[in-house]
Amino acid sequence: MSTVKKEGCYLIAEGEFGSLYIFIDAKKNYPLSPYIIYDGNDHAVFVRSEEEKIILDYINPEIRDKLRKAPEVMVVETIMDNIKTAYHVTMNIVKKLPLDWKKVGLSTWEEEALN
Asked: Is residue 21 within 8 Å of 12, Cβ to Cβ?
């Protein structure tokens, strides 16, 4: 059974040579063929495995273009200040994410600003 969860707290950082790192809380199992689906807007879907999809919501506008142009990123799973695991993840850039954000409780930056 596939689950879709929202990552509560994550960080996208740029390395010294332009590499992108996404820091998330450590998960229970090791990922199987992970990839990220992204359209250059507010949210991305991190497919950690076919059974586990994680929404990275409200991506900072300052990093969106770099993330959209990256062929891959490094995902770093942490437990407090310790690294549990790190692995490369391919970026799949699409014109529009195939997800109804309202069904998973999300909206856009613009809609949030109106509330």
From this structure: yes
* DSSP H or E run through 67: helix 61-69
What is the spatial distance between Cα 86 and Cα 13, in angstroms, rounded to a whole number? 14
Q: Is the pLDDT of residue 106 over 80?
A: no
Model pLDDT for residues 16-72, shown as the tens digit of each residue: 899 999 999 999 999 999 999 999 998 899 999 989 999 998 899 999 999 999 999
Q: CA–CA separation, 62 vs 64, rounded Å?
A: 6
Q: Which helix (H) or strand (E) holds 14?
A: strand 11-14
Find out whether 90 and 35 touch, Cβ atoms under 8 Å: yes
Predicted model pTM: 0.83
